[in-house]
Amino acid sequence: MSVALEQHAEALSARFGDTVERVPSRCSELTFEVSSGALREVCAALRDEPEWRYEQLVDVAGVDYLDYGRDEWNTEDATSTGFSRGRSASVRPESYAHYGTESRVGPREGRRFAAVYHLLSVSGNRRLRLRAWCEPGEPPMLDSVVDVWSSANWFEREAFDLYGIVFRGHPDLRRLLTDYGFVGHPFRKDFPLIGNVEVRYDPAKGRVVYEPVSIEPRVLVPRVIREDNRYAPELKDPKRHG
């Protein structure tokens, strides 16, 4: 990370104190975690105070940390070459110290859902990422920042639709991407792959009806058998491999 960004990070920490905490980043991008109670206050200061001037909210992304850090199979002995599970062999789960006990056994109690805010300072040519953990309970809740950045309107509606995050104070919190009669929130990690309801047109009733899904659970990963000279020795070209 550049010297200028490091100085900017130190200034942010000094200004906001205990309400924000810097999160280590492996992609050289500035990331802070902000407490849910101070979210709107911090966002307003980042927009209005002349030393920050984050005029634009680029995106708000919901995150579900259910089973975070768990794997379907052991990959700690992955090699540094070839295909693997997508985790570096040199990085152990214990190295994610800033996530505390989440790193191996899932999120801590009450810390499953979060919203991530991507900010842009056009005048300062800087980007900043904020993460706020939702308040415990169901539904997960955060304060809306629509009155800070109007672009948050649809972003927060999307996070509400897909993750069920309720943004307190939003002027029109409705579903955005799913249908009117959709049940549940499809980006939650525990949402069934086949959904909860299915839609069909009923000619007798003359309208669309919603019913429990009738699709049988199935394996979604196809079995692929390749019979060519990459895998079958008897099909290899002897002139090339002799």
Describe the structure.
The structure is a single chain. This protein has five helices and nine strands. The chain starts with a helix and ends with a helix. The protein has a domain at 3-66 and 107-174: NADH:ubiquinone oxidoreductase Nqo5 subunit (Beta Polymerase, domain 2), CATH 3.30.460.80. The protein has helices at 3-16, 39-48, 102-105, 152-163, 238-241; strands spanning 20-22, 31-34, 56-64, 113-121, 126-133, 141-143, 166-168, 197-202, 207-212. Strand 8 and strand 9 (207-212) form a beta hairpin. With 242 residues, it is α/β, with parallel strands linked by helices. The chain has a five-stranded mixed sheet. It has a two-stranded parallel ribbon with strand order 6-7. It has a two-stranded antiparallel sheet with strand order 8-9.
CATH topology of the domain at 3-66 and 107-174: Beta Polymerase, domain 2
For the termini, the CA-CA separation is 51 Å
Helix percentage range: 10-25%
Low-confidence stretches: 81-106
Question: Beta-sheet strand percentage?
Answer: 15-25%
> Structural class, from helix and strand content?
alpha/beta
Q: What value does the Rg take, in angstroms?
A: 24 Å
What's the β-strand tally? 9
Count of alpha/pi helices: 5
Supply the key terms.
two-stranded parallel ribbon, 5 helices, Beta Polymerase, domain 2, 242 residues
Secondary-structure map:
Layout: H1 3-16, E1 20-22, E2 31-34, H2 39-48, E3 56-64, H3 102-105, E4 113-121, E5 126-133, E6 141-143, H4 152-163, E7 166-168, E8 197-202, E9 207-212, H5 238-241
Parallel strand pairs: 2-5, 6-7
Antiparallel strand pairs: 1-2, 3-4, 4-5, 8-9
